Amino acid sequence: LIASLEQVDQTYIMVKPDGVQRGLVGEIISRFEKKGFKLTGLKLFQCSKELAEEHYKDLKQKSFFPKLIDYITSGPVVCMAWEGVGVVASARKLIGATDPLQAEPGTIRGDLAVQTGRNVVHGSDSPENGKREIALWFKEGEVCDWTPVQSPWLR
Ligand code: RTP
């Protein structure tokens, strides 16, 4: 009916171990669903130290890196791939600032988190990193491309 002229992107969203432990998985998934994005990958997963280090390799020199790796590997995470127009930037807005103290109310971190080191969710920071991170966290065949039967207004 209506073809979108905008670029469709993919982003990697992850509920971090604190989000899983606190029972926030459904709430977090719900925010992306309600916004109008399409879920293309989803799994509960205990990640290795090696995978966490690869994911956060750009932060290797930071003083908080060892603490970050301990945090991310401390329990299962929920890995998600989401698709949609402008999904990378839009997801970052829904998530809110890295430091929950700076995150606006209405954002996931603004509503649900208190500390930077326990900020419940991750979202890719560029379309390139979205693709890279989805390939890193999901095996071939785990990401599912499907066509919604309704709602040409959103997708
Ligand atoms: P994310 O990758 O998790 O979506 O976070 P981000 O882009 O908002 O933030 P980034 O600077 O890439 O940092 C990645 C994660 O590292 C932890 N962190 N701890 N000072 C600290 O203790 C500190 N700074 C960052 C956070 O969990 C942050 O989300």
TrEMBL record:
GO terms for biological process: CTP biosynthetic process; GTP biosynthetic process; response to hydrogen peroxide; UTP biosynthetic process. ATP binds at K16, F64, R92, T98, R109, N119. Coiled coil: none annotated. Its cofactor is Mg(2+). The keyword Membrane does not apply. The keyword ATP-binding applies. Keywords: ATP-binding, Kinase, Nucleotide-binding, Transferase. Its EC number is 2.7.4.6. The active site is at H122 (pros-phosphohistidine intermediate). Belongs to the NDK family. This is Nucleoside diphosphate kinase. The chain holds residues 72 to 226 of 227 of the full protein.
